[in-house]
Task: structure prediction
Amino acid sequence: MIAEHLAEDGLIIDMHRIGVDAPIDASEYDLIFIGTFTWEMGATPDEVKDFVLEVGYKPENVAVFGTGDTQFGGDELFCLAVDKLAKFYGSNWDGLKIEQSPRGSQEFNVKNWLEGVLHDVKRLA
Ligand SMILES: Cc1cc2nc3c(=O)[nH]c(=O)nc-3n(C[C@H](O)[C@H](O)[C@H](O)COP(=O)(O)O)c2cc1C
Result:
């Protein structure tokens, strides 16, 4: 959904599948969206940690989004990996947290969050 919205905005997108695709050169990108699920007791998945190490430094232009499920530990652990990554990167934006998958009203959350990110990026450009 994020990629679709960005494409509608006329932006050029590279999609990287964490743990699948060849490493990226993060310095080539104006903006990097990192998506993650949250695992056992609020943990960041190993694949995502590996990606962080692979990038090797903390780009300043990272926005974080992810899915989670409140069934696995309530609000306290909900999408905790999103918060952890956003904090790690010193992200300018609160992470986008989606319960299970972005259907119904959560679709608006995706759009609103993205508009907020793009608004700031354009303002700072
Ligand atoms: C063993 C297990 C532990 C999980 N722990 C958490 C958790 O601590 N916090 C959270 O928000 N979601 C947790 N989840 C939910 C996953 O993040 C969730 O399944 C995923 O984000 C939704 O993607 P999916 O549709 O691919 O399952 C857990 C799921 C499983 C199976």
